[in-house]
Structures are given as structure tokens and as C-alpha cells.
Amino acid sequence: MSANQPATPQYEAFYSLPAQKRAGRQPAARGAGTVKPRPDNVQLAFGYPFPGSFPIDDLTKATGEMLKAEGTSALQYGGGPGVTGLRDFLLERMAKRGMPAGPDNYLLTYGSAQGLELLARVLVDPGDLVITEAPTFFGGLRTFQMQLADVKGATVDKDGMNMDELEIILASAEAAGKKAKFVYVIPNFQNPTGTTMSLERRKRLLELADKYDFLIAEDDAYGELRFEGEDLPTLKSMDKSGRVVHFGTFSKIIAPGVRLGWVIGPAPLIATMTATRIDGGTAPFAASVVNQYCRSGDLDKRIAWLRKEYKQRRDAMLGALEENLPAGKGVSWSMPEGGFFVWLQLPTHVDSREIYAGAVANGVSFVDGPVCFPDGGGKNFVRLCFSFNDSEKLRQGIKRLAEVVAPKL
Fold it and tell me: Which of 7, 219, 229, 332 is exposed most, by the fewest CB atoms within 10 A?
């Protein structure tokens, strides 16, 4: 470096203390660029809807109709009547699902992920206790860890979060003079396990919330994508104490690119979450387009079609697992009744992180278990997504995965 050339800033020296502590706390999920995939890689890692599911023609039509009706107001900060129209549509839809709410209980967000981030921002100070399922959605987990929460996990089985284990965590915290700020759950077709919380455990969770004085963050990203079995009431619809904050999204039922989600919760909390924002309104143009699309009456027909499509994909993945990795010898998998994911358990001596590179070299990618656990456990688990590929690709991907796993059994 020449004498006249200015030195490059040492950026770490400018970081706030929280930013310093956040750096490197949680690794990126496998499949996010850690190993370069083959051109013919079968992507089983991320929960992407399949491209053929996007209603391009209908959204094109909705965009033209909306602009004709709303003009420049839809392109201004805050948007026009389509924004309040979407709010009213969602409130009506939530009421039909047993969650009556008014405008003061509602917040439109950039996907449900922003809602979770806002909740964590207003509730969590460094060191505060947040409890999640173990395993859980790694995006939610990272959000809470980035807020410097003390995140503990209660294990998940076929009926959802283990409530006895949850109470042990809560009682232990209480004995230490501490209590949970909130418990984060994905009760319907959980990410990553695909399991659904039973009605009895939903009731128990609400009882524990009253007993130990905490809030419940209910992430319902997949709740409308049930393709077999009976619907269960949302936690929000069962809530008598105002403790549940419900998160929804259009990402799975229209398209993730619209970046629209919503929060339904207690009015004081919604007001505080809203006050922390500095944007000029959540995607007013997109909200107006989605409102126009939803008002066309096609959303329920679309969801019915999506259920059939995703069931076919789930069945293809389960069939391929049975054919290529038969249950036994420590191998098992979940049987989701909806959603996007199958949770594969391998023998305890198999580390999903260690087989990842070999799997990608063989043309298939996945998410390894440890990124889904607050304590980094679950090394012998794999999250598989069936939503993105067609049946033939899914069978091919599972076969490639089995070719890497089978020698380890």
C-alpha cells in the first residue's frame, strides 16, 4: 500500500456491542452456498413452492384491474384503497377460522418473517428467555438468537411440542427468578418435522401460558395446506387470555415473491410493533394487487388445487424413501398431513453435516438437522422439502440421497 493510499477501515471497530456478539452466532443452513451444487442438482433443501404454482396470468390480470381502479394511489407511500381492502379481506378470512379481530389487532408485514423480527425486537432484551420447539424453523431461531435471546428448546414428537418438557424449562426458569417472554411454535405441519400439534397439547400450552405468564407466537405458515386428516383449531382461536400472537403469510398460498404476511394479536402489542417500523407502508403496490386477486374469489379454489398438488409430491417422496431407505436400522421419517417437509432420522452414528458434501456431489441437497436446534443438536436428522420438485425429480433426489446414506447404515 502506497503512503498516499488511505487505509481500509476496520469495520469491526465500528460495530455496536450487540452486532459484535451476533456475528457468527448461527451458521447458514446447508445448501446456501457452502458447497457448489451440480447443474442437475435436485433441491430438497429449501421450502420453495413449485414454479408452476404461481398464478402469473391471474396476477397479471389483477394488476391491470387494480391500476385501472386505483391509479397513482397504489404507487404512493401508504398505498390506496387496496391496502385497507386487503386488511378487511384478511380480517374476514381470519374470522371464518375462529379468530375475530379488528383493525387494531392487525399488522401487514413483509412476509411472516418480518412479523417475527418485530415481535422479537419489542419483547426481547439480551439474555431474555425464549422457548422454541426442538427442532424448529431455523429462520425463526436465528431471528431470536440475533436479538441475543437465551433460546431453549422443548423436543417435538409426533404430537408436537412435549408439554411436560416445556413445563420443566418454565419451572426451572421460575426457580431462578426468570420467565419466558414467549414460546414460539409452528403447530400445523411443523417446519422442519411436518408434525401437527395435537388438540390436547394445544390446550395444555394455553394453560401453561396462563400459569407461567408468557406469550405464544403461533407461526401458521402452512395451516391452510392440509391435504388429509381433520383441521384443528388455531391456538389463536382457542385463546381466552389474549396471549397468542398469530402469524400468517401469502408466501405458501400465492407466491413468496409478493412478500406479504400478517400478524393478528393483542391491540397494545400490535401498536408497539407498528411503532418500531420506519418504512412507508408494507409493499402498497403488492398489497393492492393481492387484494384485487383475492377479491376475484379464486383463492379458495387455488388452495384446494395446491393441496392436491402437494399431496402428490409428498406421496412421491414417501414412496421413494420406502423404496430406497426402508425404515429400520435407525432410519425413520415423519408422515406429514400437510405443509412442505419430511423429517428424516438417521442412525445416531451418522452426522448429516458430514454427508452433506457427498450428497451435493451426488446431485442432491438438503438442510442438516443441527441448524434447526437451539443447542446445535440433531446431527443425525435431515430436513427434506417436497414442495419444489415434481414427482419424478423427488424420486431421483431421494435415490441420490440413499446412495450416499446407505453405506453409512
Answer: 7
- Last residue in a domain, options 279, 295, 311: 295
Tell me whether residue 6 is in a domain: no
Q: What is the pTM of this model?
A: 0.94
- Cα distance between residue 72 and residue 282, in whole Å: 16
Secondary structure (3-state) at 172: helix
User: Could you tell me the CA-to-CA distances from 349 to 222, 253, 316, 343, 398 in Å, in that order?
Assistant: 32, 38, 28, 17, 20
Q: According to the model, what pLDDT value does residue 12 have?
A: 75
Q: Write out pLDDT tens, residues 168-211.
A: 999 999 999 999 999 999 999 999 999 999 999 999 999 999 99
- Give the residue from 244, 271, 295 where a domain finishes: 295
Please report the sign of the dihedral spanned by the C-alpha atoms of residue 383, residue 388, residue 392, residue 397: negative
**Same domain for 103 and 21:** no
Same domain, 327 and 345: yes
Q: Other C-beta atoms within 10 Å of 386: how many?
A: 29
3-state secondary structure of 343: strand
Do the domain assignments include residue 181?
yes
Instruction: Report the alpha-carbon distance of residue 291 to residue 64 in Å, rounded.
Output: 13
| Integer Cα distance of 55 and 293 in angstroms | 10
Give the range of the structural domain holding residue 214, as residue numbers without chain letter. 56-295
Quick check: 31 and 43 in contact, CB under 8 A? yes
Q: How far is residue 67 from each of residues 71, 115, 211, 297, 321, measured CA to CA in Å?
A: 5, 28, 51, 19, 48
- Residues 322, 213 share a domain: no
166 domain residue, yes or no = yes
Distance from C-alpha of 381 to C-alpha of 367, rounded to nearest angstrom: 9
Q: Say yes or no: 272 and 391 in one domain.
A: no
Tell me, letter by letter, the H, E, C secondary structure of 254-284.
CCHHHCCEEEECCHHHHHHHHHCCCCCCCCH
